[in-house]
Amino acid sequence: MADKPIAHQPPRVADKRILTGVHFMNGDEAIAEGAIAAGCTFFAAYPITPQSEIAERMARRLPQVGGVFIQMEDELGAMAAVIGAAWGGVKAMTATSGPGFSLMMENIGLAIMTETPCVVVDVQRGAPSTGLPTLVGQGDMMQARWGSHGHYEIVALSPASPQEAFDLTVKAFALAERFRAPVLIMTDEVVGHMYERVEIPGEVPMAPRRKPEAPPGEFPPYQPEEDLVPPMACAGDGYRIHVTGLTHDERGYPAMDPEAHDKLVRRLCEKITRFRDEFTWWEESMTEDAEVLVVSYGISARVALGGVELARERGIKAGLFRLITIWPFPDEILRRLAERVGGIVVVEINLGQIYREVERASGGRIPMRGVFHAGGRIHTPEEVLAGIEEVLRCRS
Amino acid sequence: MPIVKPKPKPAPEVLPGVRHPLEKYLRTERLPHIWCSGCGLGIALSSFLYALEELEIDPDSVAVVSGIGCAGRFAGYVRLDSYHTTHGRAIPFATGLKLAKPDLNVVVFSGDGDLFAIGGNHFIHAARRNVDITVLCVNNFNYGMTGGQVGPTTPIEGRTTTTPYGNFEHPFNLVYLAASAGATYVARWTTLHARRLKESIKEALQHPGFNFIEIISPCPTNFGRRNRLGDALDEMRYYAEKAMIRHGVDPAEAEVVPGKEFIVGKFLEVRKPTYYELYRRKVEELFGRDA
User: Fold this and answer.
1) What Cα–Cα distance (Å) separates residue B122 from each residue in A29, A146, B65, B125, B251?
2) Is B96 within 8 Å of A63 when comparing Cβ atoms?
């Protein structure tokens, strides 16, 4: 019995790409399964709480599906390896939490500039610094938006359940290929560690990489198509292209002039913002007749829904707007909703990051209250109710 | 939108109708390069390209990854799949590229500051894992691109813009570091030893595992000028006088100290399983099939 140590037993999970069926899984595991189902075959990361379950799942599963897992020496290396792998022609992902996310910012800039499709997961915890490593936070929302250097647009999605973590990871891979850009999954410790029912469908689409049709020698690697995205020639495809983080022209060659820079950076932004309707996702509950709109995302949105229900029990017409796509921020949708309501409450586990965006989108014309916490725990529905009542008071 | 086709500009003909044999490997439309006259990077570049030529390697199977700095511009001049990445991150980028496409011959070409200061952690871990890549490090003893600051190989008392009173940090012995971290092929040459360097690059390109070649190079604009080493030719004369060709020397004994003789040659060539070979072995062991 005891002659074989457990560590040497081969993994028992079936070696299928898509684990079709109903599972009891936490959000971290669901992200890993979503990635593999979407065709991810390369994962590089560095251990950090509360992300480790993603890495551990990937370490177990990727060798089963012909993929490669590598634990890098740090998050700088993890992000660089992911970009390198993407240029090797595969779908690649990394996952981290706040401190590691900061280290990844350098190469997220490289991925943006070189138009490299990849997925980056941030399982947020209490911060700044080492903060509360095992406890929840949502304080990296602005880091996701502005953390790398220079001006850029980024796609960031925020799941509120393990099921949604799976679904959004699949979508993140599709968006990464669609826009040739890094796509962020901004989840949190509670969604990451929460076990729930996750249903994995029979088929999961694998987004194709947009390859050049022109033959080598006649292919300017950074000449965009109609939708502002250029096709991608990977290493070994025979195109022998140059890829650089320097400002470059359509040939991919360094172009050290302000006009080339302005043109490039504007295109990198516009290729995402012009098509934002393709991926601006949200969920509304009880907003039809709402007088107070509660805006939230991730785990906080689930608590906020409890607060909205408490308000309804007390005869207050409250409704919930749950952001799924965080960046680019759905300005127009919130502006229209804000015209219909008398007050807005923003619930988040930071001291008002998305609050600023809601205030900006709504034009600052109606009373607003933030239900904030710096991190370490989720809110209670009662705290959300108190916020709703407070905003109503300042209205009257 | 009109398609802008790249128009390769041929390099000047040396004699009517005569082309340089390496032209096919170069992005000639990008020449002249940005390197200073007397810099050793051109010799390092041509040694590498001659190595490719003599080995008859399919250029589509070679990828070059560079970091940032003078040597970082190497990737921009080779007509190969070439990646100019972020400062210090060429090795982890190359690791991802190699693991995603194991048939590629991945070459990292960068400088001493990029690979051993900001990228030092990546270097030792890639060497430890025995990732199957070849790392060519042009060591000019300072940060040339940013104006000549002190670097991890600047010798004691070396004058740089950030050691105006002379350097008082201990430098790395790169070949000792590489060998201790687990590199399986370790050599050092100077840009004077162009032919031997080329042969060494050929060996490294054919050797599975983490291969490291240090290429000592003049930097007449910065390090050479501030340390009164004369022009590039004087530095070459210095190499001719002080570089002792020895093979199989203990890299621990191979420090480079100004004014003293130093060892060039092949320090190490051993075969051990690469990261990818071990990965494949593990997958076969577990699932009884090929990765």
Assistant:
1) 28, 26, 14, 5, 21
2) no
CB distance B3–A87 less than 8 Å?
no
Residue among B176, B153, B172 nearest B250 (CA): B176
Q: What distance in Å separates residue A197's CA from the closest CA in chain B?
A: 29
Task: Please give the residue of chain B at the shortest CA–CA distance from A224.
Answer: B1
In chain A, which residues have their Cβ closer than 8 Å to the Cβ of B1? Answer: 223-224, 226
Whole-prediction pTM: 0.95
User: Does residue A175 have a pLDDT over 80?
Assistant: yes
CATH number of B40-287: 3.40.50.970
Query: Is B279 in contact with A68 (Cβ distance < 8 A)?
Result: yes
- Helix (H) / strand (E) element for A323: namely strand A318-323
CATH match for A7-200 among 3.40.50.970, 3.40.30.10, 3.60.160.10, 3.40.50.12780: 3.40.50.970
Low-confidence ranges of chain B (pLDDT < 50): 1, 290-291
Tens-digit pLDDT profile for residues A179-234: 999 999 999 999 999 999 999 999 999 999 999 999 998 899 999 999 999 999 99
Closest approach of B287 to chain A, Cα-based (Å): 8
Cβ contact B95–A77 (<8 Å):
yes
- For chain A, state the CA radius of gyration: 22
Asked whether the beta carbons of A353 and A141 are under 8 A apart, the reply is yes
Residue A233: closest CA among A200, A223, B120: A223
Interface residue of A72, A93, A218 to substitute, partner B, most B CBs within 10 Å: A72
CB contact under 8 A, A220 and B103: no
Domain residue spans in chain A?
A: 7-200, 283-395
- Domain layout of chain B by residue ranges: 40-287
Which ipTM value was assigned to this complex? 0.95
Domain A283-395 coded CATH 3.30.1120.10: no
**Identical fold between A7-200 and A283-395:** yes
- What confidence tens digit (pLDDT) does each residue in A100-149 have? 999 999 999 999 999 999 999 999 999 999 999 999 999 999 999 999 99
Q: Which amino acid is at B183?
A: A
The structure tokens 């203990």 sit at: B250
Give the distance from residue A31's alpha carbon to the nearest chain B alpha carbon, in angstroms. Answer: 21
